[in-house]
Amino acid sequence: MPRLCSDRSRSYPGRPVRQAVQLTLDSVLHGNMSDDQAGVSRGHSSSVKRDEGPNPEKGKGPTSSTIATNPTGGANGRRVADKPDPDEHLLERILSRPNMIKAWERVKANKGAPGMDNMPIADFMAFAREQWEEIRASLFAGTYQPLPVKRVEIPKPTGGTRPLGIPTVLDRLIQQAIAQVLLPIFDPDFSEASFGFRPGRSAHNAVYRVRDFIRKGYLVAVDADLSKFFDTVDHDVLMDRVARKIRDKRVLQLIGCYLRAGVMIDGRRRDTRKGVPQGGPLSPLLSNILLDDLDKELEKRGHSFARYADDFIILVKSRRAGERVMASVTRFLERKLKLAVNQEKSKVASTNESSFLGFVFKGASIRWSEKAFAEFKRRVKKLTGRSWGVSMEYRFAKLAEYLRGWMGYFGIAEYYRPLPEIDHWLRRRVRMCYLKRWRRCRTKVRELTRLGCNLRLAISIGLSRKGPYRLAKTLATQSGMTNKWLKDQGLLSVKELWVNIHYPATAR
User: Fold this and answer.
1) In which band, very low, low, confident or very high, does the pLDDT at 8 lie, cut at 50, 70 and 90?
2) CA-CA distance, 153 to 164, in Å (whole number)?
3) What is the rounded CA–CA span in Å between residue 91 and residue 177?
4) Euclidean distance between CA atoms 208 and 221, whole angstroms
5) Three-state secondary structure call for residue 97
6) Once rounded to an integer, what is the mean pLDDT over residues 340-353?
7) Could you say which of 138, 179, 246, 358 would form a disulfide bridge with 75 (CB–CB 3.0 to 4.6 Å)?
8) Strand 311-316 relative to strand 347-350: parallel, antiparallel, unpaired?
9) Distance from C-alpha of 62 to C-alpha of 457, rounded to nearest angstrom
10) How many C-beta atoms lie closer than 10 Å to residue 140's C-beta?
11) What are phi and psi of 223, to 5 degrees?
12) C-alpha dist (Å) from residue 375 to 230, 371, 404
């Protein structure tokens, strides 16, 4: 059922109530919609076709951005020359058939866990066929109220956890539709130094930008850490910046409802008077809108910097300049944007002592941080744990999935030396798993001799009282379970993945 806004809830600027024609989500997503269903009554005789947007000119429709693949799940697209008009009919564009189709495809592709209503994506269409007409009418009337997000903790690639808010499938669909329309309005004016959750940009681009500044002689880093950024965003400050370009009061009110939807923690609802919950498709865009003021201020001062979401680093040429910049940027963040700076984690230091997005810089060379590598080893130990009761085929598949993902991100590190040793360690962990599976002496001897190991050596392994990890480094296990045999079983080589990134076959 649709959720209705309480009369007591405050809203960002109000709007006149307009009558809306009901339309099933099934027709929105699959295109089986009649011309009569597409019209919206506006209190005058002329009607506007929904698939053409508010443009009454014959045969013309709204220009929308093309959505590209994004593993983070945020709003995605490409810049378009003909931006949607922010002055009118924005909600109609958001709820238009092409935009809703695109949003649904994106939400469905991202999969994701159920929200607090426990409705999986597979069951959403059946719900939408029954309820979409009423939900859509409440969206036009300004009475729709999102459900609170479900709070979970997810691991960071560099270690630790971060809070994640999971909206319901319905709210993810609406947020994605909003983000797709707002992105072409805001993105073209964002700073060139902003790389987070933007089409055609990535964390790697931000790291390369920092490396380029280091090569130019900017060897002191101003590393300011925003304290719990997504939990401390001031709603009034954020909405003031959104309203600079969005004048459709219905859209502003809907975004405000999402900001104040609340969060469920351990079964109890908590109000969200501040913050933008991570996890929704709209949150990355809103964070970029707020922090764009910081980007513009740094550009106006002529600073060299890079920002990815709430992580940013400023490069200067002397420690004295760095201390001065740190003080002025902290004042700007606290006074203008009402954001807190974590003084314990913030520092002014040499670029050799600073980290950014999980990477460190040794001279002008990019390397993964020790914290990121420690998390890598922890995850690999978990995937190659000898007490994990799964088949080796499944173990190899999960290990390959993680290794490809980790090297896909950290593989840009310009540091070859530890890679052969990492491969040696991986092979030893896998051999340990096999020895653990071959518990009995007779089984170990039979399997090792079958793989080509000398019988005498195989017997010595079978009779040994040493543990599987120590035995995994012996001549017998390495002559039986050779490197080639392990590769044939599905074990990936970190060294080969790194070489393919830095020296692809097309470049040879």
Assistant:
1) very low
2) 6
3) 10
4) 15
5) helix
6) 94
7) 179
8) unpaired
9) 74
10) 20
11) -105, 95
12) 23, 6, 15
Quote the CA–CA distance of 91 and 415 in Å, as a whole number. Answer: 50
N-terminal to C-terminal alpha carbon distance within the chain: 60
Distances (CA, A) of 148 to 11, 271, 377: 17, 9, 36
Structure tokens at 125: 């269409």
Tokens of 411: 């593989």
Q: State the residue for tokens 């080509």.
A: 452
Q: Give 331's Cβ-side CA count (13 Å radius).
A: 5
3-state secondary structure of 502: helix
> Rounded distance, CA 200 to CA 205, Å?
10
For 413, the token pair is 């590190």
The token pair that represents 116 in the structure block = 């607090």
Among residues 323, 309, 298, 152, the alpha carbon closest in space to that of 221 is found at 323
pLDDT for the residue numbered 6: 44
On the question of pLDDT at 79 being above 50, the answer is no
- What does the block give as tokens for 84? 């949607």
Which 8-state DSSP code applies to residue 8? T
User: Residue 449 has which token pair?
Assistant: 């001799």
**Which tokens in the block code for residue 98?**
């092409």
Q: Which helix (H) or strand (E) holds 180?
A: helix 169-186
H helices of 221-282, in order, are 229-232, 235-242, 249-259
Q: What share of the chain is helix, strand, coil (3-state, %, to 5)?
A: 50, 10, 40
Q: How many residues does the chain have?
A: 508
Q: 130-151 pLDDT, tens per residue?
A: 888 899 999 999 999 999 999 8
**Of the ranges 151-165, 214-228, 244-258, which one carries the lowest mean pLDDT score?**
151-165
Report the half-sphere exposure of 105 (CA within 13 A, side-chain side).
16
Residue 122 CB neighbour total at 10 angstroms: 10
Answer yes or no: are the C-beta atoms of 457 and 479 closer than 8 Å: yes
Distance CA 306, CA 302 (A): 13
DSSP label at residue 274 = B
Is the confidence at residue 198, as pLDDT, over 60?
A: yes
Percent of the chain topping pLDDT 70: 81
- How many angstroms separate the CA atoms of 357 and 375, rounded? 14
Whether this prediction's pTM lies above 0.85 is answered by no
pLDDT at 458 over 70: yes
Using 50, 70 and 90 to split pLDDT, how confident is the model at 3? low
Given the structure tokens 């159920």, which residue do they identify? 114
The Cα–Cα gap between 502 and 79 comes to 29
Share the mean pLDDT of the chain. 84
AA letter at 346: S
pLDDT at 373 over 70: yes
Q: How far is CA 397 from CA 394, 400, 403, in A?
A: 5, 5, 10
SS3 of 356, please? strand
